[in-house]
Structures
1.
Amino acid sequence: MKLSELVGQALNKDNFLTVDDYLEFPKHYLEFIKNNLQAVIVSKNENHYQFFQYKKDGTFNVTRPINSNLFYSLEDFEILSKKFNELIDSIKEKGFDTVENRELINRIIYSAQQSIGACLDALPANQSNTARKINGDLFERFIRLIIERCGLEVTEGTIRVPVKVEGQEAFKMNYQHDLNLIKNGEVMAIGSVKTSSKDRLDKVFIDKFLYNRLTEKSTPHFAIFLNDVQRKGQEGKYGISATFLPGHFKGYTVKLNPLDGVYYCDIRPNMVSEPILKDHIKTFDHFVFSDMWDFVK
């Protein structure tokens, strides 16, 4: 498949309506990059990150950073995507919660979504905002589809929030959310799903504060992010920089309200080592194997 065909497929959100659709696209993209790149550039400061540079058909664009420790090869993806399908259909089965399966969950999701994002990086610079919006929308849908396949009820979009005054419902207002976990018609937990926390971290904390104040409830709020790195530097000296703001996260956690779960596929080293961060941030496998089930108990 040519790069133009891959980009055209990634631009059409109707091509991604099932989990299987998300697992099929990367096979074509991974096949393409095996022999059709101008170069694979290694990050200067964190060497396990790479950037793909396209040839003339991609106007020699350089992609987002790709974590080579998470990004599967075509051969591995073809085999392990089948296992991923089996896993999410039976994730509560005894014996499925293993180190290997947890790694598989994170790496398949990361590889699939980054295949879409990196493919869209081939678009001209004047279409970068369109590419970013589509990539973000597709990631939200991917996570919702995975949760549904695992067996939980999940919705998206606007919900009518009852606003209480002195314990009595006074009126309703519309509230927009990426993801709502539902049980018996009731919203049990509310989630934000973004490819990164850049420019979005504040809103997740404030949403929890406002929603629970308006409803006089303590509904859990969680956030799911793909990664928090971006390319920096000039051609020949590319590296990566973090987009996560640890000071903001700690401040909101301590002084506003802690979130009930924050999850990454590509987790940063400081998130597993620094006080406060390591107590509130986990890899995505924790969400699907345990936390999301706890939210709907």
2.
Amino acid sequence: MTSEITLFVNPTAGRGRGARAAQPAASALRDAGFSVRTILGEDADDALRRARDAVAEGTGALIAVGGDGLMSLALQAVAGTPTPLGVVAVGTGNDFARALDLPIRDPAAAGRVVADALKGGPVREIDLGRVGDRWFGSVLASGFDSRVNDRGNRMRWVGGRFKYDLAILAELAAFKPITYRITLDNGPAHEIEATLIAVGNGTAYGGGMRICADAVMDDGLFDVTVVGECSRTTLLKVFPQVYKGTHLSHPVVSVHRVSSITLEAAGITAYADGEPLGGLPLTATCVPRAVRVLGAASPARSTGD
């Protein structure tokens, strides 16, 4: 007997790659013996409603075909349910798939990975971040990086990581430190001057910027990267290191591992998984084992002493 699974497709992801990717992904799944239905939405709200309906009706898996924006929508549908998530990453950034070492821009291979997992292959239970009723899988950005995101999202004429590089340069012209009030876990609130605070369940945002490079997606904790008050010159030196994750050793950078964080700052919009959450203040909580991801193997861990 075959199990019905659901392809959740963004036809506009990666300048049309979403629509083109659906067919080879579906073919790989059907070849493996699965019955596949496809759902599209007229807009994000309609797409999410359809995905939630599929989960409520008992689909065997929700397979998201698109970029990080669609992965974010899919997480809203499956988080906290037994329905596993498959990832066919064909967008621009694909940070969620990168963090889980899943195929990127190869929908047939991604379909085979999902099919193998559904037949007994690796399935990884990962943590998710939660802010109110919104879930996120990768990074919550606030500060300089969220302002870069604002500007990058307005740059319709250029795509990929390059637009974020351009947005960084543009935002530097108006750069000044931000006064935050932060609370880590149940500790006291305190004020700091910082350039940005990134809350990482995953490692990266912006198409490979490894802002929370050491984050582990199933340790029950966020990695909170704080880039402290610094000059434009220092920021220009530090930010290119983000692509390799080597910025974490810089003196202006600190990392905190916590299960929850409250952020307050005037005039700052937060983004999670590249999608706007709204203005600060907010509280983010790490929810352990909130979703099962098909084909994502757990990383090797050091046993230590």
